Amino acid sequence: QVCAQLCRRPCYCPWVPPRCPRGSPLVLDGCGCCKICARRLGEPCDFLHVCDQSQGLVCDYSSASAGTGGTCNFEDDEEGCEVNGRVYREGEVFQPSCKIQCRCLDGGFNCIPLCQEDVRLPTPDCPYPRRVEIPGKCCPEWICEAQDQRLLQDARAASALLRFPCQEWGTEWSACSATCGLGFATRVSNQNRYCRLETQRRLCMLTPCPALPAAFPAVS
């Protein structure tokens, strides 16, 4: 009876089939006449606009008021999850990418990484380890960077510091360590090529020390 009221014969369909969003295949409508985009999980549906049966979806009218359409849901209230337009069943394991693996659980999904997140410390045989993406491989790998390349990078960083010096800062020079004769004074300052705080020293002399008296007379 519903089919007789809603379906017209013969069928009149557009020449160009509709372009469906990702994860929504082309299917025949409820009249079995024209091709339409199958409705996905949670989308509205009715007699004409059918749900994607390949994903186990049916039109659920349980929460719809009289005279309105339903919502695409799993049959027998089976829970699932949707990722990138694709619906996965409860307990199904899938990989959205080669780096992670996920499992559909209670309407959501839990994922674990497939690539090791290890940390490599410098060693004598590999003083400058670096993690890089390798063409054709999913997970990044550790490589030992050549020392001359590292020295070149350090030289570039030092030249950048020289071109853009930091704001100078320093303490006053301390008192001379000796009351007479040569001594030294200290201060903390960042006035160096790397703009790092360091302790600096310089020689100082307040007054010359007096000559010591001769302990014994000179013997000819």
From TrEMBL:
SUPFAM superfamilies: FnI-like domain (SSF57603), Growth factor receptor domain (SSF57184), TSP-1 type 1 repeat (SSF82895). Gene3D superfamilies: Thrombospondin type-1 (TSP1) repeat (2.20.100.10). It comes from Acrocephalus arundinaceus (Great reed-warbler). May play an important role in modulating bone turnover. Promotes the adhesion of osteoblast cells and inhibits the binding of fibrinogen to integrin receptors. In addition, inhibits osteocalcin production. Belongs to the CCN family. This is CCN family member 5. Pfam families: IGFBP, TSP1_CCN, VWC. GO terms for cellular component: extracellular matrix; extracellular space; nucleus. InterPro entries: CCN, Growth_fac_rcpt_cys_sf, IGFBP-like, Insulin_GF-bd_Cys-rich_CS, TSP1_CCN, TSP1_rpt, TSP1_rpt_sf, VWF_dom. Residues 1-75 form the IGFBP N-terminal domain. Residues 79-145 form the VWFC domain. It is found in: Secreted. Keywords: Cell adhesion, Disulfide bond, Secreted, Signal. The gene is Wisp2. PROSITE patterns: IGFBP_N_1, IGFBP_N_2, TSP1, VWFC_1, VWFC_2. Its main location: secreted. One of its GO terms (biological process) is cell adhesion. One of its GO terms (molecular function) is integrin binding.
